[in-house]
Amino acid sequence: MNSYGMQAKAHWRRWLPTRYAGLTDPESFFTKLGKQVETRIGDLMMELAGPSQPEASYLETVGRLNNARARATEIVLRESVLLNPEPGTEEMVDDDPPSAPDGPMLTDWIPVVENLSDPYWSRLREQNG
Asked: Rounded to an integer, what distance in angstroms lies between the CA atom of residue 110 and that of residue 106?
């Protein structure tokens, strides 16, 4: 399962619990959805980027393509992955960080300044043994 499938699975489990519970094979569903999202982002990116511009510099081209990918990702995720919450889930408060099957996912957040005395680093060292 790619990152889009994992993101969809986490979102649906949290915000669409009824739809998620109705899936007979969530792993297969989100694996397939992740591949579809990845393909759709790539296709839409090329559409949004438009034709290549021979007079553009390398950095201008990279910027144009990166911008197109970011816009395509935002559009496709909103359409297929980050669907609106089911009624009643808006009131739920999620104070706990997302968890992996074997505990908290400490690697999802990286501090801007590396302060080795920060408790994050000791937890990460413990987690990675």
From this structure: 9
For 16, the enclosing helix (H) or strand (E) is none
Positions in the chain whose pLDDT score sits under 70: 90-115, 129
- Contact predicate 107/19, CB 8 Å: no
Whether 97 and 127 have beta carbons less than 8 Å apart is answered as: no
Is 0.70 surpassed by the pTM of this model?
A: no
Q: How many residues does the chain have?
A: 129
Residue 98 · residue 105 · CB < 8 Å: yes
User: Left (φ > 0), alpha (ψ -120 to 50) or beta: where does 22 sit?
Assistant: alpha
| Beta-ladder partners of 67 | none
Residue 125 pLDDT? 80
**Residue 4 tokens, joined:** 């889009």
